[in-house]
Amino acid sequence: MGYKRWIFSFLLAASQKLLAEDKTCSLPNIENGRIAPYYYSFQDYYFPMKRNAKLSYSCLAGYTTESGSQGARINCTTRGWAPAPRCYKKCARPPLHHGVFSDTKLSFKIWESLQYSCDSGYRTPEGSSGKTIQCLQDGWSSVAQCMETSDTCSAPDLSHGHYHTVQRVFNLNEKLKYECDDGYLTAGGNTMEEALCHPQGWSLFPKCTKLQCSLLSPIEHGGVYPSKGSYDEGDVVQFFCLEGYSLEGPELIQCYNFGWYPKPPVCEERRNKCPSPPQPPNAKLPSPLRTFHHGDTLHLQCEPPFQIRGSDEIRCENGKWTSPPKCTVLPLIPDTGRSKNMEVPLLPEMERNCSSPPVVKHGLITSAVNPWMTSYKTGSLVEYRCVSFHVMKGPKAVTCVHGSWTEPPVCSEPCLIDEETVGIYNIELKWTLEELNFLHGEVIEFVCKPGYVLPPSISESQLLVQCVNGELRYPKCILRDPSENCGPPPSIRNGILTRLVGTDYAPGSSAEYSCHEYHFLQGSRTVSCSRGQWTTPPICIEPCILSHEEMAKNNLDMRWSFDNRPYFLHGEFVEFICKPYHVRQYSTSESDFRVQCRNGTVLYPRCIDMQG
User: Fold this and answer.
1) Residue 603 in contact with residue 546, Cβ under 8 Å?
2) Which of 78, 84, 129, 185 is the most buried (most CB within 10 A)?
3) How many DSSP H helices and E strands does the chain contain?
4) 272 with 295: CB under 8 angstroms?
5) Which residues, at least 6 apart from 152, have a Cβ–Cβ distance to it below 8 Å?
6) pTM of the model
């Protein structure tokens, strides 16, 4: 009898495990889309659906799938519905005065582009004769507009800042002063700056001569494409950054014949991290490669025979380093009983020239140096830069000192993740990245592939691997023992364990979770023990609690009386309207007043008083 009971328990646990693994996809929440009505009526019967099940959905009128069709099919996978069901609003052809569109269609699918050109005597707000706009998730990428050309500049809208004058139209050579709000900086890194109304210039920051833009200044940690000596009016230049650096500001800029110079009023959020610290010529940094944050300090040292001038401390402030000190040369003097540290004029007979500057592997000379020059005077300085994806270590310049060059920099090579080797070592990247290139000094986080663990003799820290001059030391994971038991099932935030099948957490054991009231369960409700590890538990997403204080602050009321409830589940929509005698702010649209609860957060639109 006991044997039969054991067989029954084993079969029941195995069948529940198979069901838990097979049923992975819950009822999809499709904004502006729907599935067949009977799925909603009999939700508990149809969901969760089995793996490899297919489901059709259709978009509401005025919306399409990303491919432009009215409906599509999605597949149930172990990670949920794929591809994720989405419906995008079509873009209606926008109004345009004093210009013409290249296409006569009345509506456009998401990602479609529309080109327009302005009539003679009119230009786009950027100053060009035409422009291409794109249909995005929230509408057109920019307003289609043709403005009459004149010798004036209009002050653009300024987010996170304010102007020092109520004047909004400026004549040529007039200046506009603006200031950023607390926590924001201008594109130049200041809290206050001036813009000049100029007849020609780059739309963002490079200076242009009349009808032609000069070569851009070198971009630290990046470059421009295409790169050439000069650019004609209408040319567009694209910025790119080296691996490990992010672009602040627009990716594209245009050379045009009218606009703000040298920079338009832009406020960027204050940065907390600083780039690699500056290293003046003939100085060295005592600290290893690491990330620096606001408030961090470093102390510089000079290479012999140089001596520091000024404070040896530099500080990371708002994403930039304070000005570093200089290292000056101590000339060699005859030993006449005077102190060796005394600085005296260099005697002419002691001056010795240097030969050609040293060659740096993966490095280029950036100074204006005659390539045929083979003799350099004492005090001459030559600067280097590393080629793309290589990190400079040491001072970026060498100095000629009494016939010898100071120590040149080293350009450390990047690391490229070898996917074949990663597979052999049974590891994978902890974070999904588009690129597999890592700069020298960067730390790469690995994890063991599912079903694999580190050997007992190796610590978890071995999964953190630093790129050292193009080389990586991969850790190796081994196969888990299939008979290994699991520990207690993982606990989840805002949820509880409701059922446990099996004892001693043996392979095949399963556990089931439920979320606290009003919390949204995302993922599989059930986990199972396999090779000493539980499968991924679900997440309980918090509901949204409406703030009447925020609603009053933004002059909002609920659109529907039945929505006057304390909680909104993750994924639900809340609709607002403006209080009486108030209208929506000019920067918001009707769609902004239908807000979706996401991870316990609601973004409140804003209404303003009709009178002011």
Assistant:
1) no
2) 185
3) 5, 66
4) no
5) 169, 170, 171, 172, 197
6) 0.32
